Amino acid sequence: MQALEIIPYSSSLQPHFESINKAWVTKYFSLEPFDIDQLEHPEETILAQGGEIIFAKVGEDILGTVALIPKESGDWEMIKMGVKESAQGKGIGMALGKRLLELAKQKGARRVVLYSNTKLEAALRVYEKLGFTHCNLECGTYGRCNVKMEFVL
Fold it and tell me: In what residue span(s) does the N-acetyltransferase domain sit (predicted)?
């Protein structure tokens, strides 16, 4: 098997960012307006805000992606982590998460938060293995989320 690479965003990868994330969101939930905006226009909604998007690549195949965005509080948020269904369970989410936390540290983050849902059991296990811990969920942040986790750097 070819080696897993973690690569940064380029405009040619936008369709992968969109399709990988739309696949899991629509499987379990429905797309919210902010999802569509971030997935279809990541350069404006994520990168121009100081965020990052990275991808997991094996050979020529893009298998997963995740993004990091700054929050008004000074925290950073992990968003849009997705791995193609055919590639799940192979450590790709873990590799993406580790690299994302490195990027957050380089940006001077003191804390990274994420929002998820108890339906996404495998994802929650990855976040816990990365060192995220459960914390209080404030009301109404995202319609589909019933879990908030944090990683203190």
Answer: 4-153
- CA dist., res. 129 & res. 123, Å (int): 10
Alpha carbons 89 and 94: distance in angstroms, whole number:
10
Structure tokens at 87: 């590639």
Q: Which helix (H) or strand (E) holds 55?
A: strand 52-58
Q: CA dist 10 to 15, 37, 121, Å?
A: 10, 17, 30
Predicted pLDDT at 141 = 66
Structural domains of the chain ordered from first start: 4-110 (3.40.630.30)
pLDDT, one tens digit per residue, over 37-55 is: 999 999 999 999 999 999 9
Contact 125, 149 (CB under 8 A): no
Helices 92-106 & 121-130, crossing angle to 10 degrees?
50
The per-residue pLDDT for range 68-82, each reduced to its tens digit, is: 999 988 899 999 999
